[in-house]
Amino acid sequence: MAWSLIHAGWMHLLLALLNAHDWTMRYVTTFSTEVFSLLNSIIYFHKAVQELQRAHDDLSFAAFLYAVIGAIGTMLVAIFLSTAEKWQPLFHRYIRMGLAEYAAAISIIIFIGMPRVGELASLDRSTLHVSKSFKPSDPERSVFFVQFWHLPVAWIFAAIIPGFIITVLFFFDHEVSSIICTIDRYGTKKPGGFAWDIVLLGTTTAICGILGIPPANGLLPQAPLHSESLMHIEKEEILISVDGEEKVEHGDVNRVYEQRWSAFLHAAAILVFVSPPFQHVLGSTPTSVLAGLFMFMGEQSLSVNPILLRFFHLLTPSSELPALPRNVKGYRGVHVYTTVQIVVTVVIFIVTLTKAAPAFPVLIIILVPIRLLLMNRLWHRETLRFVDAWACRKGTPEDDKDLLAGEINEKSAPGQSPADITRVNADRQA
């Protein structure tokens, strides 16, 4: 594992030097990113079930029942508190903001303390395993560093393959997370630093390999939650057009506090709590609370995924469905598109449960050419234009094709306006 992560580290640095974001993610559409986000949600829920299964095996039946209650309670309280901003006029605005932004932390603290009160204190419980001294948790290791230089040369080169798979997973995970937390809804102004992010990620991945610990990466849905907590409304001048005349109005615009303090304090708090004596505080956390946190993270990721809304449309009578754009010919194509996304996600998740699990990032990447080369032959272009779009830039693949066709037609039929060319192209497609 050490050499796999070391190889992944230099591969990340290579991707950053080549500015891979610009020539890879430009071809990725929301079809793939939505599938990847849904897969992350399912994995979070699955991890929660695994924690409860371990509690069932290790605890008495009464303690297991409370573990289930504690897990579900942790999730529900966190979800409830995350809506505190909508409680107006209850409490002061800053109190509501604090409750919403620290919903998960407050819920965790509540359910860490609850089993230590009253008759619940007599129940046996399973808590997080932590080290009681500053030394490696593996009894076979006396130093923190893995002696990776003792591995045969052949195995060092063989580790390039899992290192490549890890790189694909981490790169795609980070890119999707960065895209989601900088969408137009958050009104970010500063340009993205994708290359620098990948450099940092590669460096920490290699360090984790040398230390013999799992690499720390998993930004969905933490990154969007961070953006949500920093979002606020500002008054700005907005240029609008009324009857052909441009006017300036003052309106509310969403903005994010773009700073480094919250991320720095977050990292510092992690460093504090993995160090003695605060590590013992983590050791008092029931694994059921961890399961509840997993369910909360899965719910937060799922709640903002467009697949969920389109899935609800699948269950809605046709007479109750919202109106579609004029060029979209009914909901049938939209429903089939959504069903394909769900089926593909389930298939990939099943793969993660088999011995072929390390290869699942490759399946995510394969979805990109499938969307661009195959799906445009199976779905009406206006349906794809409605449900899909480029992940990192404005527009859709269909818009780019129309633009390209317009440029070709302009050369073959000079003098026609872009509107005429677009109308001719639409007639040809019909």
Task: Offer a concise description of the structure.
The protein is mainly alpha-helical. The protein has helices at residues 2-17, 20-24, 30-58, 61-81, 93-101, 103-113, 153-158, 160-180, 194-211, 222-230, 261-273, 279-282, 287-303, 306-314, 332-352, 360-378, 381-387, 397-412, 418-429; strands at residues 231-242, 245-256.
Walk me through what this model shows.
By secondary structure, this protein is mostly helical. It has 19 helices and 2 strands. It has a two-stranded antiparallel sheet. α4 runs antiparallel to α6 and α18 (397-412) crosses α19. It is globular and about 70 Å long. The chain starts with a helix and ends with a helix. The model is unreliable at 424-430 (pLDDT under 50).
Could you say which structural class the secondary elements and strand pairing correspond to?
A: mainly alpha
Any idea what the radius of gyration is?
Answer: 25 Å
Counting copies of identical and different chains, the oligomeric state is single chain
Order the strands across the largest sheet as they lie in space: 1-2
Ends distance: 55 Å
Enumerate the spans where pLDDT stays under 50 for 5 or more consecutive residues. Answer: 424-430
Number of strands: 2
Topology:
Blueprint: H1 2-17, H2 20-24, H3 30-58, H4 61-81, H5 93-101, H6 103-113, H7 153-158, H8 160-180, H9 194-211, H10 222-230, E1 231-242, E2 245-256, H11 261-273, H12 279-282, H13 287-303, H14 306-314, H15 332-352, H16 360-378, H17 381-387, H18 397-412, H19 418-429
Antiparallel strand pairs: 1-2
Helix pairs in contact: 1-8, 1-9, 3-4, 3-13, 3-15, 3-16, 4-6, 4-13, 6-13, 8-9, 8-16, 14-15, 18-19
